[in-house]
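Handout, page 2. Input:
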Amino acid sequence: MGNTAVVVGGGIGGLAAAIGLRRIGWEVTVVERAPTLQDAGAGISLAANGLRALDELGVGEAVREASRGQYSGGTRTPQGGWLTRMDGTALEKAVGTPIMGIPRSTLHRLLRAPLRAEALLIGSEVCSVERVGPGTARVDCGDRTLDADLVVAADGIGSKVRGRLFPDHPGPVYSGSTVLRGITEKAVGLRTDFELTWGHGAEFGHIAFNDGRAEWHAVLDLPARTRFADPPAELRRRFRDWHDPIPALLDATRPEDVLHHDVHELRTPLPSYTVGRTALLGDAAHAMTPNLGQGACQALEDAVTLAAALAAEPTVEAGLARYDAERRPRSQAVARAARQAGRMGQRLSHPVAVALRNTAMRLTPSRLATRMILRHHAWVPPQLG
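Output:
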């Protein structure tokens, strides 16, 4: 079996894949098109399955130290009433860890730490990936060419590699929701670690960090490419009557730190996550809506599973076949569940439907709610050695 790989994309999934491949003895080069590593992004919640994957990659302890456990909070109405309460202690007892909140920029830095600086090609655009022999793939980056035994396409939801491998696939589609998010400039006084608030066609949530700052996000059901001349002012207008600490979170964020992205997903599942010596990973393989908080966790699962499969099988082809067989059913099932969660969450707008949902949530026993969460969190990673 060969032992050289090129990972296309330096995000969470790509960096995790590079770490996993290095842990099984492969030489890895990560190609990232961004000219500088600005570590853009807001915050992220990591569930038990993602944390277990990070443990297997050898960075779990560092990530936990930089994260804040989500023990308190839950889901609320705009007036402040509770629909469900989070029981982080019960979840920790069930799966060994609470959900952890961490800035994306911090997670990116921790994932880059195990990699040599020369293994990261920054500001390089992948122009093409071609098979040049029975066991070799060639990655053309314009100013340089890399030959490898394996190519891992972790180049995000708009993956150009996926487009070349599956030219007839419809690609990502707009989910119907757009999201604005940011991180507060300084510490804010919060009574809970994590909250979601569901209105009619709108959602607001926050994640508390261990330094006292917080990430917040606002999800709105709007036509694709809707943009605002003054995003903070628009958010204050839309959420002015919603409960505390929503106005305070908006006021504590600098206008230039507000990000705005439309939410897309791969609604049509891919028929395979591998073609030849190329494996698709993360959003390039199964971009999903964020309603279950599983996008990054599924990419981390991909990374560990790919490395373990390649280590266990006698050939790259056999390893990739095993990776596809293990990852495609689970990740696509999670993507379907995330889409359904969105339909039953902030996307509901009819007053009767909202009232029925809210009543059902208030009447659901906490043990049953925890059991539903465990369907996605209770994943055991394969061992990398």
